[in-house]
Structure formats: C-alpha cells, structure tokens
Amino acid sequence: MTLLAAVRTADRxxxxxxxxxxxxxxxxxxxxxxxxxxxxxxxxxxxFVAAVAAVKLVRRKSIAVPPAFGxxxxxxxxxxxxxxxxxxxxxxxxxxTFLSSLPGATYRFGFYCCCTLIALWAxxxxxxxxxxxEHLIRLLAWLFAVTVAGGxxxxxxxxxxxxSPVEALLPKAVAKDGFVQSLVHPQAAxxxxxxxxxxxxxxxxxxxxxxxxxxxxxxxxWFVVAAFCAPVKTKWxxxxxxxxxVSLIPAVYSMNRGLWLGLAAVAVxxxxxxxxxxxxxxxxxxxxxxxxxxxxxxxxPLGTVVQARMDNGHSDEGRAFSSERATELVMAxxxxxxxxxxxxxxxxxxxxxxxxxxxxxxxxxxTLGGNGQLWQxxxxxxxxxxxxxxxxxxxxxxxxxxxxSAVGIAGSxxxxxxxxxxxxxxxLVTPLLLTLLSYVLLAANRTTAPAAQGPETENR
Length: 460
Prior knowledge:
Elements: H1 3-13, H2 17-22, H3 24-31, H4 33-39, H5 46-58, H6 69-82, H7 98-127, H8 133-156, H9 165-169, H10 172-175, H11 178-184, E1 189-192, E2 199-202, H12 209-228, H13 234-246, H14 248-253, H15 257-276, H16 280-298, H17 302-310, H18 316-333, E3 343-344, E4 367-368, H19 373-399, H20 406-421, H21 430-443
C-alpha cells in the first residue's frame, strides 16, 4: 500500500464529528468526575450515562460482545435469581423482610447493570473506531491524577467537607442517612483512631478510603501505560515521574495495607509477563522503579507511618469474623443462591450483646458481605454467583494470556488485581466500572479499527 493510500484509508476509518459525539457521555463521566463529586452526584452520575448507553445499544443493528462476556451475564442471572431469598433470615442476623432488604439489593443490582451497559457500549465504540483506545487510556490515566489530588487533599486537609448542591436539595431526614451521606456529601477523608489518635485517611473523590485505594491502583496501571508506553514528549514523562513520586504520600498516609499489597502484586505480575515475553530490560526498569519507591518510603518519615500501620491491625479480627460467619451461614442455609443481599449480625465476634455505643459507633452489628467482594458475592448470590464471578475473571486472564502488549499486560494486571483484592475490597461502584473498562481495552486490543489503535497497543 502506498503512503497516499494509507492516508486515505486512515481518513475513511477515522471517526467523524457525529461518531465522536456518540461517546461524549462516557468522556464526560470520566473526565468531569471531580465535578460530579463536587456537586454531590459522584456515582449517581453513572446511571445517567448507563441510560445513554442502553439507548445507543438498543438502536444498533448488531452488538459486538467481548470474549468471556457470557460468564458475566451468568453472574448477573445469579444476582437476579438470588433476589428470591431476600426474605430468608439465617440464624444470628438481624431479622429483615423482603421489602426492607430490597433497597440494598436493588442498589447493587442496578449498578451491576449500569457498569455492564457502559462497558458493553464502550467496547462497541472502541472496536468500531468511534472511541480511540488511546483516548480511553488517557481518561483512566487522568483519573489517577484526580485520585492523587484527592489523596493529597485528604492527607493535608482531612477535615475538608461541605454540603453539596444535591445534598441541599434532599429532605433533611433523607440527607442525614449515613448511606446517603456517603453518596452526596463531599469529604476529603475518613477520620479514624486505630493508631490511638485521630488521623485522616484519604477518600476524595471516591467516598471511602478503601475505594480510594482500589481506584488508585487500577488507574495507576493505566497512567504508567499512558506515560511510558506511548510516544509522548519528554517533559510529560518527567511530569509523570514527579506525580508518581508525589503519589506515595497519600498512598502511605491512607494506611491502606490492601493497596500496598495490591501494588506489589501488580508489579510482580507485570515483571513476570515482561520476562516471559522476552523483555528483561522492561522488567529491570520496573524493578528499579519499585526499589526506588521502597527506599523513598523507608528513608523518609513515610516509613514511620507504614510501621505504625503494620503494628495496628485494627479491623483484622472483625474481618475474619465476618468472613467466617458469612461462609458458614450461606453454606448451611442457602448454598446455591445465597440470601440476595447483605445482612447485619446480632452483636460481634465476642458476644451477641455487643452493639454500637457513643465511644464505638461501629461496634457490633457487622455486615455479612460488606468486607470484600468475594464475601459479598458468596453471601448474597451463593455458589452460583461466586462461580460465575470467578469464572469471568479467570476466563479473561486465560483468554488473553498471550497478549504481551502494553495494553494486554495492563488489562490482565487489573483483572488479576481484582481477584486479589476481592478478599478485602468491595468492587461496587467505581472500582467495578474501572475494572470493566480495563477489560474492554484488553478485549478490544486485537479487534479495533486502525484509526482507534494507539501506539501503546503494539507489541513491544
């Protein structure tokens, strides 16, 4: 093909103005997420984009489905079927009726569907060349910068919070609800005292510290791809190094051991993939960066924070109790479909009489299924939901095991990260959406139109 012919082909496949506008809602959701958070919308903006995605998908003559998607549909089916058990109360939990359990179950199922619709829509846009892969990667990389900025805000101005416009419009009785507060009330950090004194743990703009840590790791993967696996100017790479270095501050001060473990696991996984693909230079560069980060933490006051966190387990016993109790109850009373939603225990692991007090508002009444995605899926949706959920992730990893491109390794790393963190992080809402978008990039890596391919998708 001559150079002129190649240019003409690219012009024909490059998305036009109308096609670019089709994915504008997804771009606005991700690019303007700090704005949605500031307004008090946050994750509530996701259903609006999901509605657009649903309309766009329905209007299509055909819908492209990514590999392993059938496993995810089986998981959604298990979620629907498990709703039949909402009125079933296993022993040792706070009694609930079908109607009292329905709002929580509806919230989870609704957001599972929203994330699914957005991911499926994004996949079709990418494979058709209407949304450049490079653009989606940069949006995820941008969210890393947003997460770091929110983390710095939470670290140094942990008391920052205010009444959002959305919160102000709600009835006071509704706005004061703890769950509603987590959705519409912007705050920089969650303040905890497990070190013996009150300390802020970054949460902005994701609502919870654990969600912040989860999204930090996912978006960091794509930030590295955007900054170091694409042809960008040297000044941008220098800026990326600076941002990654600065990000260590909120990452450490979050005292999020799950984040630290997850980042280490991602680094090891990536190093092994680089070695298997015959790129020892990349593996050594990654190892050098990791060693530099560890030294920076150890040789600065950050090391003191890490040591203090390791000496204070805080939630270890409560998590162990919740996980064991959830497994016992679902296996004994509803192994196939679970109980449709989470439940509150009567008391704690020490005594059924233990409950919340002014000094310990979170004592007692632990949420079964609230301490990790695995336990939530198992308790709420039983063995059927668990097998389908795990089957999806494992099928994705197996299907793309030979894709050693930057996108292939990054996408697999994110999916593998979700398998590790499901023991202690809940995925809904934003971590699941970001993981599914990573799956979209991974699945579309070999099937997109030429104009949608970015240079970072090539094998290296």
